[in-house]
Design goal:
Largest interface: A-B, 40 and 42 residues
Number of helices of chain B: 9
CATH architecture of chain B: Orthogonal Bundle
Strand content of chain B: under 5%
Largest sheet of chain B: none
Distance between the termini of chain B: 49 Å
Number of helices of chain A: 12
CATH architecture of the largest domain in chain A: Orthogonal Bundle
Structural class of chain A: mainly alpha
Helix content of chain B: over 70%
Radius of gyration of chain A: 24 Å
CATH topology of the largest domain in chain A: MetI-like fold
Shape of chain B: globular
Number of strands of chain B: 0
CATH topology of chain B: MetI-like fold
Order of helices and strands of chain B: HHHHHHHHH
Helix content of chain A: over 70%
Order of helices and strands of chain A: HHHHHHHHHHHH
Number of domains of chain A: 2
Distance between the termini of chain A: 36 Å
Number of domains of chain B: 1
Radius of gyration of chain B: 21 Å
CATH class of chain B: Mainly Alpha
Strand content of chain A: under 5%
CATH superfamily of the largest domain in chain A: MetI-like
Largest sheet of chain A: none
Oligomer: heterodimer
Chain lengths: 269, 236
């Protein structure tokens, strides 16, 4: 019986969604897509297919690494601002203000061109094990994107830490938990639950920041499309495909986060 | 340090001109975005089903695609389209200024975000106020001007202020299409003098000053728009 009811529900929802004007709009959209597929030039696709896949992989990799590292940095930043003493909270607040107050492009160029041009002057850096990495562009890109994510997310985590009800922490203390245990079992999980909806938005924003690394010669998917444009003198086709790829990745990210959010108990506070 | 002096061997003047261009674009884009956003929000709330669906597509697509890609796409497509239109109508081709193109492109992007902000703010206005205005027999234009816009302003301001800050920072992206604003000027100055660190730090400080000054002014405006309402701290 229950199964039947859900089927009816789903059918009703579909018919509600598929109103006549929507069908017309979908047909127009289909016509546009088909027109683009037939009347535009796509013969360069097979040649750049592998390069494109590698570019997508690199973009996703940068996204995952910078979000992970940035979040790890954001937790102490948020904690310092929410509960730390002055000499902890002031630098954390200054860091967040500077990161959020300047364009990511400037931060990226500052690190890559600025720091990158300083390093070769010192022989001990050129002889160290780090030099092969410091000569490449991607460490600077990853560093800049990580710091940026940490700056924005640190502010979110500050609000999330401050928003956990005092009673929860007092109850934990009454149970005799140590401070570290309170943080690990009560404070951090509840703060993350609170921050999760904004985390989705921040991750999508971070995805939209990744093409900036192409300006410091990291070959991500954006750089691949620029190369296609230079090689074939086509303007629109690579850019349209690029926009489509980013939309698909955004859609997948939002879907994945909504699944994670649905698993979280929603009676907090 | 003498590289930053405002007189010709130094690049200070060029940087300040770049900053001025950035601010012009940010201001223009925010105003255009506000216009699009207001129209879009009303379309989304009170428009017919087709308008609503089209606006949903607009806001979703713009917010899902990186600004850099959108800027490239709209910049090329927009200038191309206008020139083709002019050619078809028999006019001479025009060279669209970078300033106008930048404002149009960033304004289009900002419009999608402000649509959502303003839509949320209008929804936050107590329904009774709008109903009362209708009951008085106000035509829609008067109601918009006297009731809806002023009443939604305190709810919209934090989001719009955020958008202004994003706009000032997004102007840096126009460096990629070759518009000479602060970021590109800085990069050129660094390239000529090889003092990259100095110049990028200087540009960072300029952007930071813009952000901090805006934050201060926005705080004042917000306090004024919220006058007579309970403070956010009390509401919690």
């Amino acid at each position: 019986m229950a199964g039947e009811a859900t089927i009816v529900n789903a059918a009703a929802r579909t018919s509600l969604w598929l109103q006549p004007h929507r069908i017309v709009l979908i047909l127009i959209a289909l016509a546009l897509v088909l027109g683009a597929a037939f009347f535009m030039r796509w013969d360069w696709l097979p040649r750049y297919y592998e390069m494109g896949l590698l570019g997508i992989w690199r973009s996703l990799w940068i996204l995952a690494v910078t979000c992970f590292l940035g979040f790890l940095l954001a937790v102490p930043l948020g904690l310092a601002q929410a509960a730390g003493p002055f000499w902890f909270s002031a630098p954390a607040k200054a860091f967040c203000t500077v990161i959020r107050g300047t364009p990511l492009l400037i931060q990226l160029w500052l690190l890559y061109y600025g720091l990158g041009s300083l390093f070769p002057q010192y022989p001990w850096i050129r002889e160290s094990w780090m030099w092969p990495y410091l000569r490449q562009a991607w460490p600077y890109g990853v560093l800049a994107l990580t710091l940026s994510f940490a700056g924005y997310e640190g502010e979110v985590m500050r609000g999330a830490f401050a928003g956990v009800p005092k009673g929860q922490l007092e109850a934990a203390r009454a149970f005799g938990m140590s401070r570290w245990k309170i943080f690990r079992r009560i404070w951090l999980p509840q703060a993350i639950y609170r921050a999760l909806p904004t985390l989705t938005g921040e991750t999508v924003l971070q995805l939209k920041s990744t093409p900036l690394v192409a300006t410091i010669s990291v070959i991500d998917i954006f750089a691949v499309s620029s190369k296609v444009r230079q090689d074939t003198y086509l303007t629109y086709e690579p850019l349209l495909l690029l926009a489509l790829i980013y939309m698909a990745i955004t859609g997948i990210l939002v879907f994945a986060f909504s699944r994670i959010e649905a698993r979280i108990p929603n009676k907090i506070g | 340090m003498e590289l930053l002096s405002p007189y010709p061997p130094g690049w200070g003047e060029a940087l300040l001109i770049g900053l001025l261009h950035s601010l012009e674009i940010a201001l223009g884009a925010t105003c255009l975005g506000l216009l699009i956003g207001t129209a879009g929000a009303f379309g989304k709330l009170y428009g017919g089903p087709v308008v609503r669906d089209l606006l949903a597509v607009y806001t979703t697509v713009v917010r899902a695609v990186p600004e850099l890609v959108l800027i490239l796409l709209l910049y090329y497509a927009g200038t191309d389209l206008i020139n083709q239109l002019l050619a078809a109508l028999g006019y001479q081709l025009i060279d669209i200024s970078g300033l106008a193109a930048g404002i149009a492109v960033l304004g289009f992007v900002q419009g999608a975000y402000s649509t959502e902000v303003i839509r949320g703010a209008i929804l936050a206005v107590p329904q009774g106020q709008i109903e009362a205005a209708r009951a008085y027999g106000m035509p829609p234009g008067l109601m918009l001007r006297r009731i809806t816009l002023p009443a939604m302003l305190p709810f919209a301001l934090p989001g719009l202020a955020n958008l202004w800050l994003i706009a000032t920072k997004d102007t840096a992206l126009l460096a990629v299409v070759g518009f000479k604003e602060l970021a590109l000027t800085t990069r050129q100055a660094g390239g000529v003098t090889k003092a990259y660190l100095t110049f990028f730090l200087a540009a960072g400080v300029l952007y930071l000053i813009v952000s901090l000054v805006s934050n201060f002014l926005i705080g004042r405006v917000e306090a004024r728009a919220r006058r007579g309402m309970p403070s956010i701290k009390d509401a919690r």
